[in-house]
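Predict the 3D structure for this chain.
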Amino acid sequence: MEINLVTEAFKFMALGMGVVFSFLIILIFVLKAQGALLTKYFPEKKIEPIKRPNINASSNETAKVAAIVAAVQHHKNLKG
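Done. Predicted structure below.
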């Protein structure tokens, strides 16, 4: 009784790869079904754009606000 170890190794390799491949295919279908169920029962909320007040560009306060915003942005960019 002679057992060919190379043939047995290929059988185990094919069986293992087949099981993993099957599991991954099933996982893909389950995740797609889960995504469909979540979007059906929990739809994404639409975000409305923020309405900004109309500020006169020639006023001195507008220039001050713009300078402060630019300074804060510059500070954040240096830290990050």
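The chain is about 70% helix and 0% strand.
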